[in-house]
Amino acid sequence: MYKRIRNQLNGILRNQESSRGTCSGSEHVPEFEAHRHIRLLTFNIQVGINTSSYHHYLTRSWQHFLPNRRRYENLDRIATLLSQYDVVALQECDGGSLRSGYINQVQYLAEAAGIPYWYQQLNRNLGQIAQHSNGLLSRFRPLDVTEHKLPGLIPGRGAIIARYGDEEDPLVLVLMHLSLSKSAQQKQLGFIREQIASYRHVVLMGDMNAHAEQLLTRTPLKETDLIPLPDTAHSFPSWRPEKALDHILVSPSLEIRRSEVVSYPVSDHLPIAMDVALPKGYLETF
């Protein structure tokens, strides 16, 4: 067993790429079509580990440090789901380290799902051990994409902000992974609140490690009019969902055509999906 694993690791190291990109570029990405409804998804993929029981946190914990052949099979299953959506927010991705076989999981999922634009945000760089990242996948060309380090006592949390459509009145998507600490969440959401204050059409997506009621009544988001999913939209743990930790929150200007927790247990979180349409008349602003 040891020799087999050692040979696998040696093969991975020999095939390690010398450079890793963080963005696919936008030249080949279609322009944003404002008249379309947009299929959104947020998913904490737990670096491709298939967790379906609490005891797997112990028995499969080694996969957070070492590569595993079945991880690629699980990533392919995730990509099959992602291929059905237009804009995807990913949390707990690996940007290309030993445990992922030096594969940028954001890029891998984008290419496997046939989604032309991807952006990887590296939040915690542990070298060859781990490349903790968030990811954006998009079928549309954004006006711009910016990444932000979120405040907190322990560094390593981040947000990606992508703007689409009209420069003067854009659709703004904020993709994030918040800390577990409530005090850190207060600072992080205060920062996010400042970033979205001047925009009318806003979507917040990601693993926020808190229920919507707490987010919208006990944090700086209470100053917004964002609309959450129902309180029953439980996403964690995936094998027995009891907590609503993953969210898509939207401005009242956006019409929610459909929203759901997707029953797709390939991580310890379930994905959250929403179909939204821009307000009537928005197309004429282009």
TrEMBL record:
GO terms for cellular component: membrane. Keywords: Endonuclease, Exonuclease, Hydrolase, Nuclease. It comes from Marinobacter nauticus (Marinobacter hydrocarbonoclasticus). Residues 41-269 form the Endonuclease/exonuclease/phosphatase domain. It comes from the Bacteria. PANTHER family: CALCOFLUOR WHITE HYPERSENSITIVE PROTEIN PRECURSOR, ENDONUCLEASE_EXONUCLEASE_PHOSPHATASE DOMAIN-CONTAINING PROTEIN. InterPro entries: Endo/exonu/phosph_ase_sf, Endo/exonuclease/phosphatase, GPI-anchor_lipid_remodeler. Pfam families: Exo_endo_phos (PF03372). The keyword Hydrolase applies. This is Endonuclease/exonuclease/phosphatase family metal-dependent hydrolase. GO terms for molecular function: endonuclease activity; exonuclease activity. GO terms for biological process: GPI anchor biosynthetic process. Gene3D superfamilies: Endonuclease/exonuclease/phosphatase. The keyword Nuclease applies.
